[in-house]
Amino acid sequence: xxxxxxxxxxxxxxxxxPVSASKAVSLLQDPNRSLPEIIKVIEYDPGITANIxxxxxxxxxxxxxxxxxxxxxxxxxxxxxxxxLLISSSFSSIMKTQVKGYDLPSGELWKSSITTAICTDIIxxxxxxxxxxxxxxxxxxxxxxxxxxxxxxxxxxxxxxxxAVKGNLSFEEAENIILGIDHxxxxxxxxEKWNLPEELEKxxxxxxxxxxxxxxxxxTGVVHIADALTMMKGVGAxxxxxxxxxxxxxxxxxxxxxxxxxxxxxxxxxxxxxxxDTFSS
Amino acid sequence: MLRIVGxxxxxxxSEPDDIIITYSLGxxxxxxxxxxxxxxxxMVHCMLPLSxxxxxxxxxxxCMFTDTGISCLLQNxxxxxxxxxxxxxxxxxxxxxxxxxNIFKIGERNYTVLKKIMWKNDLQIKAEDVKGTxxxxxxxxxxxxxxxxxxxxxxxxxx
Lengths: 281, 159
Hints:
The structure holds two protein chains of two kinds.
Chain A lengths: L2 H9 L7 H10 L6 H9 L4 H9 L13 H8 L1 H17 L12 H20 L7 H7 L2 H9 L4 H11 L3 H9 L3 H11 L4 H8 L12 H15 L15 H7 L3 H23 L1
Chain B lengths: L1 E3 L4 E5 L5 E7 L3 E7 L4 E7 L8 H6 L5 H14 L7 E7 L12 H15 L4 E6 L5 E6 L4 E6 L2 E4 L2
Parallel strand pairs in B: 1-3, 6-7
Antiparallel strand pairs in B: 2-5, 3-8, 4-5, 4-6, 8-9, 9-10
Helix pairs in contact in B: 2-3
């Protein structure tokens, strides 16, 4: 069996995600969702309520009055934020594992996923653009394929890096040559297996090569930039370092220049500092 | 003891048993200073070149920015009685992604600001491992004053 087929077969053996997570993802996309429905999903997950209350009373959202009920917290934070938090918490244990093959210590991939997700929010507010509500979740899951390749299949990234350096290729181009598949495609296949919506799958599949995506949507471009800026900071940069290509097309479409880029990096770091305790527990 | 310098942080030591370390410098810049006479060492990990982006934040966290961070580290040495001639200054980081139009040049700008501060203070960088696409971890061994760089699983002295 070829390496590619072996990897795809292995993806089939990855455990399913919690029911509450897939319910939260579908509610996030449903404009007609109601507050009781959301609260019902949250109640599936006993660990999450404390985190939601913590976030509602944190310096980012607090208005001075202490909140102690799930209902009040949901109103203060907004339905999207609550659902995103639930999704984050559902994926946190799998994403906190050590990604040996890519030389990422435990927790590092999670930290980079959270930073990338926060960065998409900052890009949205800094550039004043409209993005779908699932952008945060797509950013959170963009590198999930690395877990499959680096932990479950135990790929050794050194050989891939050597190929990239010799051929002056980006890391995912070299992954394709050595493995016949890259971590972005692996991530997208996994999400399909988890029955997550296609809209969410696309930004994961094309986060390194957004211009190759059919019917290019800006959410894919924004996840691409957010991922790249996070790696530039050194967060989640494994053995492969910064050996990835920026899409000039996306940079042009977003009208990015160095001042905007530095502002986005700065605001992302400040927001991350404010929120990291909520996401790490 | 291992002393970890996070993003936007600084650490100064005079303990021979300390190893000062900063992990995965991407486009950020790491600077190590060792006073060979007083046997004091320090390291900083700066994220963005210029503090004008938010002067209030720079007061609270000067090491977030290269201009205020390097100056802050330097000032600490001078306050402790270091003379410029005894300072061994080394730097690493300032990497970038593959970016044909060079729009995302945070690394390059961090490096330029560092060079300007060195020039203004009549100081020289003794050794550097900068630019390219590597992610680098920088270490300063206080028992010897040696600075090393770990990258791609290998560690080598920065000389």
